[in-house]
């Protein structure tokens, strides 16, 4: 064998074996959960015009400032691999005029790869999967907002197999948020020389982002910053109160977190993040929020949206081994076929049984009989069929080790245990 010099890029995963199987089952579980809320799956392209992300996700977000994978220009347009789904889903709704449906809110779910040029570390990849939903309407009302929030919790809980913790904040209307940004600007301006280079930039582009800074010294300074609650108008305050009262009434626990601003620029109103309550120091499993101007900013009608996304690899990293096994239990083969005849009888039998929903397969020709039985045990086949050169059949029960001659017509019954 030669020496392998080309390796998988940093921050990516090769998907096979248990990882592939967990991914498959998570995808199914999460999309089925969102279908209970009426969401239909959509899948926008993996890459879009760069302008889409700059306009929607926002120039000041880290995701767009530093983390996009921008493709080398080939024609007359710049393209970027999607760093998130919300912008693409909104563009899809606009381009296909789905907003003209009388049946509102529109409810979409998605599951797929996103790309961010981040420094890879545990739980932080450059290519990863997100699952999420977007609910869109002319005005996203409180019920729709809470429906999205509750779905994010039930989906995470089902996937993880245990309780989760949700942190909430309310960023208010566009006007309230602008007033708050100004207050933050005034607060941080005299301190900015002591702060990190990113915060210096954030002060200029979007001072809200400073509250998200992970540098310890900056976090200390941010503790004394004005609180968003003091900048909400009366309508915002009453909307927020109705939401938390409804959650209280439903017995859903939450934590209010006035420092939670989320990494992307488009949020107004309710924002939230989901954590593992048994492992609260583990980074956020997902987050979401309401946005009001995104559709308009990309040239569409005045539509609002609320959505969330979960980091699928984060969920996997946080999951217990038992939960993973439980989740991705593959069906053991119903029948393992050792074909000593090689004239097509085995293939014919397998295709008939597969039509009945049974899992059947055969080892490669090179396997000798002893090796083939060992393989049947390793892959936990329930029964093994031997097709002899004279075409007669014998069925072996791998648990009792009993082996008997059997007619082809009696196979299905024997396998189904009828
Ligand atoms: P965001 O779109 O930034 O709000 O991220 C939503 C969720 O995606 C986060 O809560 C994480 O679970 C996950 N996530 C974000 N960035 C990464 C990354 N670089 N690697 C793995 N998961 C990520």
Explain the overall architecture.
With 418 residues, the chain is α/β, with parallel strands linked by helices. Helix content is 36%, strand content 20%. It has helices spanning 17-35, 50-56, 62-65, 86-95, 142-160, 174-188, 197-205, 216-223, 234-249, 294-297, 312-318, 321-327, 345-355, 369-378, 411-416, and strands at residues 40-41, 47-49, 79-81, 106-115, 127-137, 164-170, 255-256, 267-276, 286-291, 304-311, 335-339, 360-361, 383-387, 393-397, 403-406. It starts with 16 loop residues before the first helix and ends with a helix. The mean pLDDT is 92. Adenosine monophosphate binds next to strand 5, strand 9, strand 10 and helix 11.
What is this structure, in a nutshell?
By secondary structure, the chain is an alpha/beta fold.
Largest sheet: spatial strand order: 1-4-5-10-9-8-6-7
This entry's quaternary arrangement is single chain
- Gross geometry: elongated
Associated small molecules:
adenosine monophosphate
Low-pLDDT parts are: none
- Biggest sheet statistics: 8 strands, mixed
How many whole angstroms does the radius of gyration measure?
27 Å
The string of secondary-structure elements, in order, is HEEHHEHEEHEHHHHEEEHEHHEHEHEEEH
Helix content: 25-40%
Number of DSSP E strands:
15
In DSSP terms (H or I, runs of 4 or more residues), the helix count works out at 15
Structural class of the secondary structure composition?
alpha/beta
